[in-house]
Design brief:
The chain has one domain (8-103). 15% of the residues lie in helices and 11% in strands. With 110 residues, the protein is largely without helices or strands. It is globular and about 35 Å long. Strand 2 and strand 3 form a beta hairpin.
């Protein structure tokens, strides 16, 4: 993965949903792994057998409240060097802002 520029608001070329190929939107990864199997909101919901709608803020409402976690998937925030992904509680503020500002769902071509 190439260096990530949070200020650009863009996703790196490798930031792609492994389920449907979605790009340019929020993606989630498996919790406590170095796994690069990234999934968009729709694919994460299906994989984790969750129902509901993930809002523009990237949060799913369920019986436990609202969370940016979808089952065992957490926000996939790449580190600035492009080496891997930040741990859930270690993401720097600019990384959190970058992820939050991404669209939750990929744009659909007309």
């Amino acid at each position: 993965m190439k260096d990530v520029d949070y200020a650009s608001g863009k996703t790196p070329p490798e930031y792609v949903c492994s389920g449907c190929g979605a790009t340019g939107c929020k993606l989630w990864r498996e919790y406590q792994t170095m796994c690069t199997d990234l999934k968009c909101a729709a694919c994460s919901l299906a994989e984790q057998s969750k129902t509901g709608t993930v809002g523009d803020d990237g949060k799913l409402a369920d019986e436990h409240g609202r969370s940016d976690q979808i089952g065992w998937r957490i926000p996939a925030v790449p580190d600035e060097e492009g080496v891997g992904y930040w741990g859930y509680t270690s993401v720097p503020q600019d990384g959190c802002t970058w992820w939050r500002n991404l669209p939750t769902h990929p744009e659909v071509a007309p």
